[in-house]
Amino acid sequence: MKEDFLRHDARDEKAIDQRILEIVRATPGGIVSGEELSSRLKVSRTAVWKHIKSLKDLGYRIEAVPSVGYRLVAVPDLLLPAEIAVGLMTERIGRQIISFRETDSTNETAFKLAEEGAPEGTVVLAESQRRGKGRMGRRWESPPGMNLYCSIILRPAILPLQAVQMTFLSAVAVARAVEETTRLVPTIKWPNDVLLSGRKVAGLLNEMGAETEKVNFIILGIGVNINMDAGQFPADLRSPATSLRMETGGAVDRKEFTRALIRALDSLYAAFLVGDYGVVRDEWLARCGMIGRRVHVSYRDSVVAGVATGIDDYGALLLTLDDGCVERVLAGDVTLV
Question: Which reaction is this enzyme known to catalyze (predicted)?
Fold first, then answer.
């Protein structure tokens, strides 16, 4: 099945569709004549009309006012590149945005793009996923038009052992975006869950292309439940789940949330690149609801219990056991006792 997608690339000349939207939005009164669009875009009036039709096909409501011009009436509730790019003003992340109506997995798509040389900061979005990927091979439920399914390509000059630090960076960015757009106060659960009222609202799945001593690229996979209702979650979830809509009692603007997340990622990543991982680590610890509490960590057939006291520079959970020894836990599912 061929996957439809749209692209925004701030490094190149902007697509005509996006330029039309920018011009209309910036014009007092919001009405622009076809002649003016033709002149400013240096294309024919017929080409302008074709691009207006293309925008309408995407769900934009654009009225043709007789003898006056075109007016933008409403925008679709879709994570379109032209909409996410509005006012983004980031340094690295979001300079290129690719949006799919449907894909198998944004992580898989981003991984292929990274292998083909896609630039750092490329954001891959999808309205739905056929095989959304969760941690440890689990499925991530991905109904269309409800949530955020997002993957970002990064190319930091770090060792493979340091790549896990990007998971903690992602979690902090999601928490910041939740606070900015809803005023809710999320907590973070090791290793990669963001919670509201003790229920999972977001999960992270980072993947890597690397050599023995070199990271070629990292894919930050981020899934956030934004506007799902309780009845849309599958009955066999391993842990309770929620959405921003369920917690706030009203719909949340997905475009606004996505922009907030990209800006948070861009800011945190900039700090990381100049050696300020400690800023990320400290904020993660401040937001983690399990530090100082007794937990069980299960992995396959083993269970270890102790008090969670922190994380090390490589992302391992530090547990103080009953005998006073400190154990580094690299993987597993955590349960608060």
Answer: biotin + L-lysyl-[protein] + ATP = N(6)-biotinyl-L-lysyl-[protein] + AMP + diphosphate + H(+)
- Is residue 199 domain-shared with residue 258, that is, in the same domain? yes
Report residue 271: phi and psi, to 5°.
-65, -40
Report the CATH number that the domain containing residue 240 is assigned in CATH.
Answer: 3.30.930.10
pLDDT one-digit tens code per residue, 42-58: 999 999 999 899 888 88
pLDDT digits (tens, 9 = 90+) for 165-175: 999 999 999 99
Q: Angle 34-41/45-58 helices, nearest 10 degrees?
A: 100
Q: Is 181 annotated as a binding residue?
A: no
What is the C-alpha to C-alpha distance for residues 299 and 302, in angstroms, rounded to an integer?
5
Count of domains observed in the chain: 3
pLDDT in tens, 15-32: 788 889 889 988 888 899
Any idea which residue has 């100082």 for tokens? 292
- Residue 192 counted as an annotated binding residue: no
* 3 state SS of 99: strand
Predicted structure pTM score: 0.86
Tell me whether residue 129 is annotated as binding: yes
* CA dist., res. 331 & res. 31, Å (int): 56
CA distance to 58, 81, 90, 126, 232, per residue, from 4 (Å): 11, 13, 26, 10, 25
pLDDT class for 86, splitting at 50, 70, 90? confident
Boundaries of domain holding 124:
81-287
Question: What interhelical angle do 165-182 and 254-273 show, nearest 10?
Answer: 140
At 316, is the secondary structure helix, strand, or coil?
coil
Residue 105 assigned ligand-binding role: yes
Q: Indicate the residue among 22, 41, 74 that finishes a domain.
A: 74
DSSP letter (8 states) at residue 329: E
Residue 237 in domain: yes
- What are 268-277's contacts with CB under 8 Å, separation 24+? 268/169, 268/172, 268/173, 269/92, 269/93, 269/154, 269/169, 270/91, 270/92, 272/156, 272/165, 272/169, 273/156, 277/165, 277/313
